[in-house]
């Protein structure tokens, strides 16, 4: 998605612009177009009016196209909080400029913002209404001088072509972008595919220049690189449910595990939900900037499993000083004519400003400080920042136009006429420094291509967040590999021999059905049985002098520990888990140390016995009596238990020998 700045130079708009800005005394003429059915939008008067087309709603039913009568525009539905934040960026920028004495001194900006509804008829007629002032051209609503265009490239170019005054040998002389050209993000995603060797990629795109153009650029970029496009499906907005189902079926049938998606985020949501219904959750998505940071998709619990690990490009995240305070102080009482603010208020607080509604009436005591909405989430002001910069670009162009009198007329009383190319030239020559220290300027109607690379990662509560993992500057790709979190565990999947499908890694472990496992089990059971037999013999002869002289307690404890050491081998058979790894370490460690402790104490007893005849040996014999022997075994064993508590074992995967295998 991109935001466009237009300078509409139709005759009516040009004459009014000359009067308002240059002061030329030209007689006003009224131009009326039939724009009945178009809502007036939100209008704030000023000396110069800046228009804006924003898709505050994203859906409208198709009008009756029987061609037997004039089609009527259908009502726009599905209020978009994200787009309403763009709306507020225009309002905030205009109010901020009006308070700045160094920018457009003596000229007060106004705005006229209309809803394009993401539909061609609404967008075109709204644009015509902005240029002419609608049905009230000769009344109180002034035509706009510049228009911040629709978020859709197709809609914006359509308006540019329709409202261009004369055939000039440039395709879109009055078309400017405050975001990079869409082709750069398609190139960036193609570079990502080449970087990781994804040779089989599918594509799902919108039915617009935005989607179709992206696929063309992507195909050109991957040509001769060993990457092929498995399929390409178009999502038509007017039959979204049907097309989303078809696209999901194609993804399910295809062996491609990487899917490029260039579409509006509401269309993407429908497509992803259809994939979930088909239990297709093992794909990696390459996201365009229009949905790579979508609050709605990131906060949808149904999509957590399928979208985890998504890679995408995003517009740079830049702060807007003071914008957060502006949003939190919004209230219908401050903007009584803003019907979109009232609609947002009703949706957020579940109240109504109408008398006939079943919802409780809005009291005005509601507070956005207590509400958790996308509007006040300013963690990523990507598109919002570019809308804000579009208003400033228009203001700086108009400010340059104020010098028209000084540059073209020596007599202050003389009011020269500014040519039609002057405004366009001033927009082309815009060059200023933002409050954050960034330089803003146009290169052939575009700004330098700079993007962020983002990765959708899981939070501790299972939700997702968009994390910046790199940058794109023109055609230069910079990625922090360590910051990426792939779907599932890292390295869980491996490509097949054709490198066109991800397959789970083979897991190798000591199985009870293998020869080595059977042999180990046989030796362990045999050793345990022999040890148990010796213990029974000792038990049977426990009252004999030889057993008593050998410290029968330590002997039985030694045989028990030997038996446990043999049986511990059985715990190492089968696929390890976190629980079995802890049992393996604890069981063998304790039983082995117990065995060694008994041998050590018995050896020390023998050593003391051989030195008993020497002078002073009575002290040593007294110290190492039966109680001290038992205590020594307990102390040595407790040391091992303490060590096991400090070292918590877990299952570890070794893939150094063969990357396609896991040895556990």
TrEMBL record:
Q: Which GO terms describe its cellular component?
A: plasma membrane
Membrane topology term: Multi-pass membrane protein
Residue limits of the G-protein coupled receptors family 3 profile domain? 516-616
> Main location per UniProt?
membrane
UniProt cross-references to InterPro entries, sorted A to Z: ANF_lig-bd_rcpt (IPR001828), GPCR_3 (IPR000337), GPCR_3_C (IPR017978), GPCR_3_Ca_sens_rcpt-rel (IPR000068), GPCR_3_vmron_rcpt_2 (IPR004073), Peripla_BP_I (IPR028082)
Any stretches that span the bilayer, and where are they? Answer: 516-540, 552-574, 586-610
Query: One Pfam family, short name please?
Result: 7tm_3
- Localization of this protein: Membrane
Database matches in Gene3D superfamilies: 3.40.50.2300
Please name the GO terms that the record assigns under molecular function.
Answer: G protein-coupled receptor activity
- Signal peptide range: 1-23
Entries under PROSITE patterns matching the protein: G_PROTEIN_RECEP_F3_4 (PS50259)
Q: Could you list this entry's UniProt keywords, alphabetically sorted.
A: Glycoprotein, Membrane, Receptor, Signal, Transmembrane, Transmembrane helix
Which PANTHER family is this protein grouped with?
Answer: CALCIUM-SENSING RECEPTOR-RELATED (PTHR24061), NOVEL PHERMONE RECEPTOR-RELATED (PTHR24061:SF415)
Official protein name in the record: G-protein coupled receptors family 3 profile domain-containing protein
Organism of origin: Danionella cerebrum
